[in-house]
Design a protein that fits this description.
Elements: E1 3-8, E2 11-16, H1 22-33, E3 42-47, H2 57-68, E4 74-81, H3 85-98, E5 104-108, H4 111-119
Parallel strand pairs: 2-3, 3-4, 4-5
Antiparallel strand pairs: 1-2
Amino acid sequence: MPLVFSVNGNILSLTSIGDYPLENAFEVMEEAFHHPELKQPVDILLDLSPSMEKRSAKEIYRFVDYFSGKKSILSKRFAIVTDQALHFGLARMFGTLVERFGLHAEVFRNYDEAVHWLNSKNEIQTN
């Protein structure tokens, strides 16, 4: 199963279902970022809850590189939802790595909490 996306204003929701090749993820994300209804700056909501993928640290670095190339159209908010320990740890690693590009990634175990955080108006402090 693939990575799928939906657009709601400036929120780009990406849901990872099952397992799929890394290149498929980049293809889907490129399609999503060019969606005519997506408004900028873009908030990302990545739901890994239904995912079965087991990405390596090297693959996480490729995601970091990908999103660093999109920083001009991204807001500072990047919410990641997962209930799996492996994904939680990798998401935290991703969050630490993207900080240097001015992005703030938060990892949640609850989808509704992630959406609430994205919709909150609290100012995010980044380095």
